[in-house]
Design a protein that fits this description.
About 5% of the residues lie in helices and about 45% in strands. It is built from 6 helices and 93 strands. The strands form 27 sheets. Strands 2, 5, 6, 9, 10 and 11 form a 6-stranded mixed beta sheet that branches. Strands 12, 14, 17, 18 and 19 form a 5-stranded mixed beta sheet that branches. Strand 80 (about 935-940) and strand 81 form a beta hairpin. The longest helix is centred in the C-terminal third of the chain and has 26 residues, at about 1095-1120. The chain is elongated and about 180 Å long.
């Protein structure tokens, strides 16, 4: 039985019988293993009222179990029934069931009250009193029915009065062709079978009103003699107010037993036909158990209870009035159980109680028996005490096992219950099979069995896993029979469970496995489709299910199976396709997804329309997902599922999942993760102590959808922090403190309430204990009274109410620094050259650094030049500095000014600042080369001279010894001519150079020098004036109102005399003239390259000429060897001089003829004197030129080339198609 219950609990999700199964499961009687001694227990028996068919044997069932197996006996009408005496009676072997063969016998002889007794050495159990009666279907008494004649409109009743049968027959009225008579609110069949007419009509006239009675046990039908009814039509029917044909009085009474069905009947009459209504006085009718049937004439209340007693009113009403009938209902009760006695398993010296609590009306009488004997007749037992409905057994002993019977009876019936008391000493055993696997769907109830047995009765303890004891608190309930119930199973409840049964004699354990599965849900529902005729319709049905369950899909059309054998219906795993839809395909299609544990379904309608032009495809953003659901809830994760929205013709690319932390950051949505557009579920990793809400945005190529509606809130349980603060630092801000700082945790990282930070510190290598302090809502802590710049070890750990974070890492830091207390000593300067010096010093002791040594800083300042005895005024000029990081003891000072006196000192640096300076030291730099002259200006250009002016260098860097001038001309190709050098004394500042070339560009280089050499040069370029000779004055007319004028067309490099003259236009005489001004036009060097003068171009032309010459030589050699050329080929092609081709343009013959010139004939050649002679050799190289003499070389060979085409006239010149001669070609290149 236990395995059967397990199977039901595994398959019952969503099944209507779940409650029944659960109640049986939790209240099943104590089961004693059959391998243990036990008194008999009746397991099966016939009903109390047994009606048999006389055509079949009588079978009175009595089955029992026990150890040892019980024997059986019977009583008949209270006396012993010896089954062995009657040969017609047989008791089945190993059973108490009687089989009575009544063939050929009178069945009435065996009608009696039987009771079965099951015995073994431990006691006797009794069955109920079984009343055995024969079913009867008597014939209708013969009678003659008088014909009935009535006036139209009057009431009428046709009595049936069937014979009494066992059980009572079923009544119905038919005509003589066995057709049921039509019933209505006017014509009505009463509960007793009579046929009532509220008013008769002429159409009721007929002679075959026949009442039939069907007896169910014998399956026989009896019929009454037909009744003839004639309705007269000669008078007008008179209308009348309602009345009652049954019940006849204004009030009546009715008694019903508790648990039975109550049927109250009111049959009205009147014209027009009255309507009936029902009500209960002083209370409402029980709507959940009440129905009004038979055209409102019958009120039916099922499973009557005591509160159904009272006054009921039926009201008949038509347009002429109303009538009312009152029915007083009383409810009695045969005995019914409140608490039936249950089997007791007692260990020796234990105490037990048998309860027999019943109720009924009238109150039942309770009688106790022991092993079938009235208890007051049983031997006296001092350990037994009887108190009305209770038997108390004190300190039972071995051998006192027995079966107790409780009989509760009143005038309406009785109840009999057996309960054995078995005295055993037995260690515990678990009856549930080991390693059972229970499977339930999330959010459903889970029941884990642990049926056990032992004496004393074992106590049951449940464990999840191997260590966690389960308490009888929500969500767990441990039932009395050991069953563990989980109200609403969640995925986190999955796992291995252990039940342990314990009593004084031992311990026993059993393991079961619970698997909580995800529910099966249809995510992509089939959608309403409007499809054109002969097109395809596709219904999607995408399902989400637990991976371990295999769904099966079933499609229905209008709640019926799809057409069989129609291959237009294609069912895939997630869709139904209907090809070439027709009008008959319209309807409602339902997708049903079944697994072994649950199912889900969805429907959509298909409408078929005529073909219409296809609308333009519109691409839009997707609709937001819907039906967000959280499943498989774990401490740090949850499964989120959703149903995608409409994609609007653009496939979904991604789903963006966002969350809101309602505890730490309400109304702020943050991105959590993104999943592909084909997904409908995502596993979300979560943080503890967060009140999550989730929403989803769908994305296609158009953009993002609107956010979905938020999911329900999901709160994760608090936990200790997973991480400690980051970026922990320990530095000092003053010489006697240590500032410990960190980056605080965020709300998501807190993992629980009351986040705080535990700070630990100690001086490194000082053999100190950790100093600890806890702070909250800050990001730094200041430790005071610390030594100056000593190392500290620091740790910062996150803590909340649920524990501490992981062990923090140790961070090394230093307390605050102070300024260095000493200056470097032993400062020495080594001068390397005029611009570089090297400084040396002795490092200061680390104890006087008082911080982290950053390096040394050298301050140096130029005081004056060496030649100056007085200090130069340099007020406001800060000294230069050079910083040398680290533990350095020397450094170089570049960029010094030569021939100068410098002052220098050194200080030490740490993180706090600079220490005191060292004693000042002076040093000198030697002479160096001077700087470039401050300026070089060229003026007074003449045809053969230029004047140079310059300024001395800004810094001589020594004693100035003079200047050097280098100059050279620049030709038109920017090439420099020969250079000239001049040495100039130091005290001169100008110089005029003579004997220069006119109209020439000169480049000048000017240097200053000391004993160390020349410094950098300054350069300039200038032109001498062009020699233009004497020229006449040129005039340009100028507007009298102008103040300036531009003269164009001047020659670069030339000098002009310019004057402005005012003239009188009337007399053309000069009125006024300015002085002459000499204006020099700057010369511009011609830097463009003449390609004809370039060497590469000349070389290229020579190479081309040489190549042409080689080609001519090769041509000449080939001609002398008789090589065939185009003329020779044409001669061979035309052997007969008489046959000449006709020209296409003028119709003349001869390819070489000309209409204007007389050409030589074929086979002739022209000599040097112009005469024509016959060819004497096949090697002759004669070409035919047209309109001119051939060209020959020195040996008489022809150099021309025959073109093979008609030539144009000579006057066309260069446009002639004649190929140019090689000589001309050569000339053209040159």
């Amino acid at each position: 039985m236990q395995s059967d219950i397990m199977l039901k609990s595994k398959w019952a999700s969503g099944v209507g019988a779940w409650l029944t199964v659960l109640l049986v499961h939790l209240t099943s009687a104590l089961e004693v293993p059959l391998d243990l001694p036990q008194p008999p227990t009746i397991t099966q028996q016939s009903p109390k009222d047994y009606i048999f068919d006389p055509r079949e044997n009588i079978v009175i069932i009595c089955e029992a179990k026990g150890k040892p197996h019980p024997s059986f006996s019977w009583t008949r009408n209270g006396s012993h029934f010896d089954v062995d005496v009657d040969s017609k009676v047989l008791m089945k072997p190993g059973s108490g069931t009687l089989v009575i063969d009544i063939s050929g016998e009178k069945a009435e002889a065996y009608e009696a009250t039987y009771q079965c007794l099951a015995h073994n050495e431990h006691g006797t159990a009794l069955s109920n009193d079984i009343v055995v009666r024969q079913s009867r279907s008597p014939l209708w008494s013969k009678e003659r029915n008088e014909a009935i004649t009535v006036q139209a409109g009057v009431p009428l009743v046709l009595h049936c009065r069937p014979p009494a049968g066992l059980p009572p027959p079923l009544i119905f009225w038919m005509d003589n062709i066995l057709q049921k008579l039509p019933l209505s609110d006017r014509v009505f069949q009463a509960l007793n079978g009579d046929l009532y007419f509220a008013n008769v009509l002429p159409s009721d006239t007929r002679n075959d009103y026949i009442c039939f009675a069907r007896f169910p046990h014998t399956q026989t039908i009896q019929q009454k003699q037909p009744i003839s009814v004639t309705v007269l039509e000669n008078t007008q029917a008179e209308e009348r107010a309602p009345g009652f044909m049954a019940p006849l009085e204004s009030s009546s009474t009715q008694m019903v037993l508790r648990g039975q069905d109550l049927e109250l009947e009111c049959i009205p009459e009147g014209l027009p036909t009255p309507e009936i209504s029902w009500r209960k006085v002083s209370s409402e009718l029980p709507s959940n158990r009440m129905s009004i049937v038979n055209y409102q004439r019958t009120l039916r209340i099922s499973s009557v209870v005591e509160s159904d007693a009272g006054d009921y009113r039926c009201t008949a009403k038509n347009k002429l009035g109303s009538a009312e009938h009152s029915i007083k209902v009383t409810v009695k009760a045969s005995p019914f159980w409140i608490s039936a006695p249950r089997n007791l398993i007692l260990a020796p010296n234990e105490t037990g109680i048998l309860n027999c609590r019943v109720s009924g009306d009238p109150k039942p009488k309770i009688a106790w028996s022991i092993n079938g004997m009235p208890i007051h007749n049983a031997p006296l037992d001092p350990s037994r005490k009887v108190e009305e409905d209770t038997v108390i057994l004190n300190h039972v002993q071995s051998g006192s096992s027995a079966v107790y019977q409780c009989n509760a009876s009143n005038e309406f019936g009785y109840l009999l219950a057996n309960a054995f008391v078995s005295v055993l000493a037995e260690p515990p055993r678990v009856l549930t099979p080991p390693n059972n696997v229970y499977q339930v769907i999330t959010n459903n109830r889970a029941l884990l069995d642990c049926a056990s047995f032992g004496s004393p009765m074992p106590t049951i303890t449940w464990f999840k896993g191997s260590t966690t004891a389960i308490q009888n608190v929500d969500p767990y309930v441990i039932h009395e029979n050991g069953t563990l119930e989980i109200h609403t199973a969640q995925p986190l409840n999955s796992g291995r469970y252990t039940c342990i049964a314990t009593n004084a004699l031992g311990i026993k354990e059993n393991h079961v496995l619970l698997e909580v599965k995800e529910p099966t849900r249809i995510l992509r529902l089939p959608e309403y489709k409007v499809v054109e005729r002969n097109m395809d319709a596709v219904f999607e049905c995408r399902v989400k299910h637990d991976p371990s369950l295999v769904p099966t899909v079933t499609w229905l059309k209008d709640n019926a199976a799809l057409p069989v054998g129609d291959d237009r219906f294609v069912v895939d795993a997630e869709s139904l396709t209907i090809r070439d839809v027709t009008e008959k395909d319209k309807g409602t299609y339902t997708c049903i997804m079944n697994t072994s544990l649950d199912q889900d379904s969805a429907s959509a309608m298909l409408t078929v329309v005529e073909a219409t032009p296809a609308p333009a495809i519109v691409y839009e953003q997707p609709d937001p997902p819907t039906d967000l659901e959280l499943t498989d809830q774990m401490d740090r994760s949850v499964q989120l599922t959703w149903i995608p929205g409409d994609e609007h013709n653009s496939p979904t690319q991604n789903f963006l999942i966002q969350y809101e932390d309602l505890l730490h950051q309400p109304e702020v949505w943050a991105n959590l993760t993104a999943v592909p557009g084909t997904s409908t579920t995502a596993r979300l990793e979560l943080s503890p102590y967060v009140y999550y809400s989730f929403r989803i945005l769908a994305q296609n190529h158009v953009g993002f959808s609107q956010p979905s509606r938020p999911s329900r809130q999901y709160r994760t349980n608090p936990a200790a922090p997973d991480v400690n603060p980051s970026d922990v630092q320990a530095t000092g801000t003053d010489h006697n403190n240590l500032v410990i700082s960190w980056k605080p945790l965020t709300g998501l990282q807190s993992n629980g309430p009351a986040l705080r930070y535990k700070i630990l510190w100690r001086q490194k290598d000082a053999d100190q204990e950790w100093v600890e302090e806890t702070v909250a809502n800050v990001s730094q802590h200041v430790v005071t009274e610390t030594p100056t710049y000593v190392p500290y070890e620091v740790k910062v750990q996150a803590v909340n109410d649920y524990g501490s974070g992981p062990e923090p890492q140790v961070v090394l830091g230093y307390s605050g620094e102070d300024l260095p207390s000493s200056a470097p000593e032993g400062v020495q300067i080594m001068v390397h050259n005029s611009t570089l010096a090297e400084v040396h010093w002795e490092a200061i002791p680390l104890s006087t650094v008082r911080g982290k040594l950053q390096g040394y800083k050298v301050y140096y300042k130029r005081e004056r030049g060496v030649q100056n005895t007085d200090v130069e005024a340099q007020e406001g000029v800060a000294p230069q500095t050079m910083t040398f990081s680290g533990e350095r003891s020397k450094g170089r000072l570049p960029g010094l000014q030569p021939y100068s006196v410098y002052n220098l000192y050194v200080s030490v640096l740490n993180g706090k600042g600079e220490g005191p300076p060292s004693p000042s030291k002076s040093f000198e730099t030697p002479e160096g080369v001077p700087e470039r002259p401050s300026f070089l200006k060229i003026s007074n250009p003449n045809m053969d001279s230029l004047t140079l002016e310059w300024g001395p260098p800004l810094n001589n860097n020594g004693r100035l010894t003079g200047y050097t001038l280098k100059y050279q001309p620049v030709n038109s190709t920017s090439e420099l001519g020969p250079a000239e050098l001049l040495t100039i004394p130091a005290n001169k500042t100008s110089l005029t150079l003579a004997n220069l070339k006119s109209s020439t560009l000169y480049k000048f280089y000017f240097y200053a020098t000391t004993i160390k050499g020349s410094g950098p040069s300054i350069t300039e370029e200038a032109f001498t004036i062009m020699d233009t000779g004497k020229e006449e004055w040129k005039r340009e007319a100028v507007n009298s109102s102008a103040h300036s004028f531009t003269i164009k067309g001047l020659k670069p490099g030339a000098s002009y005399k310019v004057r402005v003259v005012a003239r009188d236009p009337l007399v053309d005489s000069m009125v006024h003239s300015t002085e002459e001004e000499l204006v020099s036009v700057p010369a511009v060097a011609n830097r463009q390259v003449d390609i004809a003068t370039q060497g590469w171009f000349i070389g290229l032309m020579c190479a081309i000429a040489l190549l042409i010459l080689v080609l001519l030589i090769v041509c000449f050699i080939k001609r002398n060897k008789g090589g065939k050329y185009p003329v020779k080929e044409k001669e061979e092609a035309h052997q007969d001089p008489e046959i000449q081709p006709m020209k296409e343009d003028d119709g003349t013959f001869g390819e070489y003829s000309d209409t204007e010139d007389h050409k030589p004939l074929k086979g002739s050649r022209t000599a040097s004197n112009g005469t024509v002679r016959r060819d004497e050799s096949d090697d002759s190289l004669v070409d035919y030129g047209e309109g001119g003499d051939g060209q020959f070389n020195e040996d008489g060979s022809f150099i021309g080339q025959y073109s093979g085409k008609k030539e144009k006239d000579t006057h066309e010149g260069n446009e002639s198609s004649e190929a140019p001669s090689p000589v001309n070609a050569m000339n053209s290149f040159i």
